[in-house]
Amino acid sequence: MTSTFLPDQRTGRDTDPPPPAARASRGRARRRAVNWLTAVGFQLPALVLFIGLVLLPMLFALYAGFFRWGGFGMPSDYIGGDNFTRLFEDPVFLGDLWRCLVLVVLSLALQLPFALAMAVLLNQKLRGRAVYRMLFFAPYVLSEAITGVLFSMVFAPDDGLADNALGAVGLDGLGGEWFADPSWVMATLFLVMTWKYFGFHMMLYLAGLQSIPRELTEAALIDGAGPWQRFRNVTLPLLAPTLRISVFLSVIGAIQLFDLVWVVTQGGPDHHSETMAVTMFQYGFKRYQVGYASAISVVMFGICLVFALAYQRFVLRRDLEGATTTMRGGGA
Amino acid sequence: MGDPGLSRRGFLAATAAAGVGMTALSGCGGDSDGGSSDGTTTIEWWNISTTEPAKSVWASLAKKFEAQNPKVKIKIVQLENEAYKSKMTALIASGKLPDIFHTWGGGVLKQQVDAGLVEDLTDRTKDFADGLLPVTKEPYLLDEKVYGIPFDMGMIGFWYNKALFKKAGISAPPTTWDGFLDAVRKLKAENITPLALAGKEKWPGMYYWAYLAMRTAGADALQKAADDKDFTSDEFVQAGQHLQDLVDLQPFQKGFLGAAYSTPTGQAAAVGNGKAAMELMGQWAPVVEADAGKGLGDDLGFFAFPAVEGGKGAITEVFGGGGGHALRRDAPQAAVDFLKFFASETTDKVLVEETGTLPVVPAAESAIKDPNIKAVQAQLKAATGFQLYLDQAYAPAVGQEVNDSVAALIAGSKSPEQVTQSITKTAKEEQ
């Protein structure tokens, strides 16, 4: 879903070659029609799949959100907006929204700066740099389910690696119940999420850092800028487009978080790690209240959509404008 | 792109690709029925026997059936308990179930029946179903029609470690709730974890509340409450208070709120490895304890859920359920033949001897060797009242709300009154 909102879609048109001036305009029109048909032909399969497997189910979920529906046959018991009012009175769902916000804030305040620091560090000349990069990126390749099983063992109270390791260095007092403790479960989950995802953001930043021309840093160095000034006034502004995309992916990921939570805690203990997607699954697949679950999914989609549009409009605009200018300029 | 011919070829290729895409898409809706041209029937059998030894025993039984019926192929699909329930939800929405599928009977089966997806077996299985033990058939009887054939029957009770009880100076298993709380205190005094509980999965916690509700309000009260959509009676509140008395003693293992049931760090393993003295679990407990942990062997004992002083229920009333198989609507005759094969005396003896299930065929009772399973069987046969597992007996939303609310009570975020109110609210929302 996230890729839908990425700006690179807009660049699809610049494959049109500059027409040779000698050709007659009739030939040009014919060729344009053929090109158009080709484009349609290539897009049709994807379009059919997108409409059938994405758009229609989404519209159906919106429709089902207005019914009391157990998932059997077609929805028939129309209840208007009741599912939605119930949703915003449900302490679990309100808790989901709060936890989502907490995750977003933690990701932006801790996870991404950490990833940036690692990227800057690994952009230096460093012995075994490639090995570090690979190591930090490896967790991202693991599936969320495997990560979940792995860390439920690591953080098993008493017997797990975490408690044993802490005990071995004399910090037994810091060992706890981790995922089993209502007040620590989110912090522990965030730790695991950071372990898994910071490598991905680090890679993005590394790619961004490498596209910054060396001359600019050198010029700043000659002008007498210290390391912090070089980072603050040269690196950071030039890395901004990458940062903006990374923030976007991180927020959308936090809103849709499901797999990891489901495998590790199923939203427990006592709903303290439940996310919107987990609540939706509980109602849709455990309680067979598919209408209500649809309402949750619609709200989730709404939040994603509003965020994505607002972000594109207000934050990504500069990056997108760059892309459109290039197109207007005829590939200059 | 400059050459028009290339464009045209490109366009043709694209059209062809689109055509393939469409075909593939329409193929998704296609029906794949078991029958094939050479006369063999393939039947799909979905079960939840993912742990050993049942897993391999069942596979070999399927082979045996195939050998006896050369024209039938059996495709086994095995899923873990919770995964199975989720998968079935998706299948139900699609309107097509596997030929033979696991069922616990009760409210969930009724929903599937009401949706017109389950075969009425009353006439098709009459020749062999009449001979099965009556109590084992209860969960699958809906409106006096047979919708499932049992292969197992059991009940929930306390499984305890005799050695740890001895160490704590408990001479005999408790028969009253006060006696039970005393036993918990004695175990705690010896630094033994009295109870193991899988808090993450919620259903094992529900057993406590359900049994306490049966003991305070009587065996029929839970079904009646569901029918009346009212769980707010004083007896149900008392049940919650009794459970709270237990929770206040902090009897569960460290980190129980995050523990699963059958994993190596879960509830069954804690008992099987001798780290906790008791668990409240069904007749399958010894098998899972030995699979997830080491198992207790002769040190393992079973006792019935204690009676509550002044309650309307008796200690002989059991909370339990079984396992059975139902067929999808219009399932082939081969599927019925398989049910008959699976409920035969020969098969049942194999199941009882090798997988620790309880007999559904009277003649298979002699095959029980394990003294604990004998104890369970004796309690079941002498039962004066019966209540099916709540998450199966009730509509799914109500069953889940019971699990959820009781989990909240155990975690300390809901009061006994709030538990009864939440369940009532959910029951009223379901039409």
From TrEMBL, chain A:
GO cellular component labels: plasma membrane
SUPFAM superfamilies: MetI-like
Membrane topology summary: Multi-pass membrane protein
Domain of life (superkingdom): Bacteria
Subcellular location: Cell membrane
Biological process according to GO: transmembrane transport
Membrane-spanning ranges: 33-66, 101-122, 134-156, 184-207, 238-258, 290-311
Database matches in InterPro entries: ABC_transporter_permease, MetI-like, MetI-like_sf
Span list, region Disordered: 1-27
Gene3D superfamilies, A to Z: MetI-like
Annotated ranges, domain ABC transmembrane type-1: 97-311
UniProt keyword Heme, yes or no: no
Keyword Membrane assigned: yes
Keywords: Cell membrane, Membrane, Transmembrane, Transmembrane helix, Transport
PROSITE patterns assigned to the protein according to its UniProt record, in alphabetical order: ABC_TM1
UniProt family annotation: Belongs to the binding-protein-dependent transport system permease family.
Protein name, as recorded: Sugar ABC transporter permease
Organism per entry: Streptomyces regalis
Lineage, uppermost ranks: Bacteria, Bacillati, Actinomycetota, Actinomycetes, Kitasatosporales
From TrEMBL, chain B:
Biological classification of the source: Bacteria, Bacillati, Actinomycetota, Actinomycetes, Kitasatosporales
Superkingdom of source: Bacteria
InterPro entries: Bact_solute-bd_prot1, SBP, TAT_signal, TAT_signal_bac_arc
PROSITE patterns attached to this UniProt entry: TAT (PS51318)
Organism of derivation: Streptomyces regalis
UniProt protein name: ABC transporter substrate-binding protein
Pfam families reported for this sequence: SBP_bac_1
PANTHER family to which the protein is assigned, alphabetical: ARABINOSE-BINDING PROTEIN-RELATED, BLR3389 PROTEIN
